[in-house]
Amino acid sequence: MSTTQPQYPVVTSEYAVVIAVHHPLVRARGFQSVSVGEVVIFEDNSLGQVLSFTDEAIDIMVFSTKPVAIESKISRTGHVLSFPVSRLKTGAIFSPLGEVVLGTAASSSSSEEYSSIFKVPPRISQRKRITKQLETGFSLTDILLPIGHGQRELLVGDRKAGKSDFARGVALTQAQSGTTVVYGLVGKKVADIKKTYDFFKKSGVLENIILVASTTQDPVSTITITPVAAMTVAEHLVSQGKDVLLILDDLTTHAEFYRELSLLAKRFPGRDSYPGDIFYRHAQLLERAGMFSHDKNTAGEVSLTCLPVVRTINSDLTDFITSNLISITDGHLLFDTKLFAQGFRPAIDTKLSVTRVGKQTQSPLQRDINQELTSFLTSYRKTKNLTHLGSEISTRSQEVLKKGDLITNFLSDSQQQGIATTVRLIILGLIWQGWYAQTHENALKSSIFQLSKQYQTSTIATQLDEYVTAPSFTAFLSKIKSNQTQLRQLCQI
């Protein structure tokens, strides 16, 4: 819950003294009573948080780059760690503790508002069914692997497979549509944080973006609270009735730093030396996302969509952190380095990717197209594999290969950002009808551009939207066939 009281008032009646330092962890002794998660203040004004305690000592993680001195005095506050949500302003980068790193904060009021960063996830009674599709801006995901508003979809893959590029692309599409985006950057290089900020600035969408970032130079303790702070920012915006997209890049880094902190605290290590509560930490974090009922929103509901990122080695989905997160989330998109090297964007392996609730957000036509396309791509891959064996190719197989190549080219949309769903579906229908079978692939790109341009006219948009009201793929293709002349003129084929 949010409060308007002073952030961390000092309880002067109780003190403790530092007896050992393992920066950013210190061991102290002296408090008569203290709670796990409580914020404490050192005599040099550094903040700390109680991690655990025994009868003999208290383990405290310090949010300071400079180690505290042994025998330093520590004061209690009686409060948990909070984020100053009243300072939030779009177009700025905030630290996990609420300090402005780049940009400006909101104008201060007489009493600042703070929100606890560690919260219990909303109850089932507060949640609603996910029914609205979230446009990612990429044909592959919007058609084959849809994501719903309020869904938690994991982005998983090796380094340099395009996960962050995809996340930025989705954030751009949503920011352009008016959705507020909270982008959490966990323990990143300063250059990477600036690259992300500059991308949104150049795209002109900073008015809908808030970044919460920690760098590799920050203390381990600060890095470990970054995803939780980003979630708190997103929750505050949701409480105001806004749909929010939250991206957490990435939770592998978070887990590694949390493991380091736990080992310093001498917690019993489990699998791969991770602490036993790492699953609980990630589950509690991601359960705070979803679709919720809300009286401030005209629709009566509001969404917090979360796209956490996790890093793998050799696409190993059985890795401890990866398998944990797959079981927590509502599906995952697997980014493949081989597809990335071949120039396919986004480099998502559709065979091993899952969206558990996304398909229920699609219309009957979209679900029908999804099923037909998935079946066809399976046949296309089998046919393509046979050609590698030097087998003779029948006329039917040649047609399958040609159509498959065109669809693959269409789904690789590195330059199709911002194309409307209606335009995508109509172009896909034209490919299916064989309109581009004898033309160069540039004709396909030209048609996408021309049809998208025409779609910006309200009259044309109304006419084209009528096509996607078809109840099935067969009916959709029939509509396209009966209106060939108009579509050829619009696409300039």
Query: CATH superfamily membership of the largest domain, which one?
Result: P-loop containing nucleotide triphosphate hydrolases
Specify Rg, calculated over alpha carbons: 26 Å
Distance between the termini: 58 Å
Quickly count the helices: 16
Low-confidence stretches: 1-6
Helix content: 25-40%
What does this structure look like?
α10 crosses α11. The protein has 16 helices and 21 strands. Mean pLDDT is 91; it is low at 1-6. It starts with a strand and ends with a helix. It is an alpha/beta fold. The strands form four sheets. Strands 9, 10, 14, 15, 16, 17, 18, 19, 20 and 21 form a ten-stranded mixed sheet that branches. α3 links the parallel β15 and β16 (209-215).
Short note summarizing the structure:
The chain contains 16 helices and 21 strands. The protein is α/β, with parallel strands linked by helices and 493 residues long.
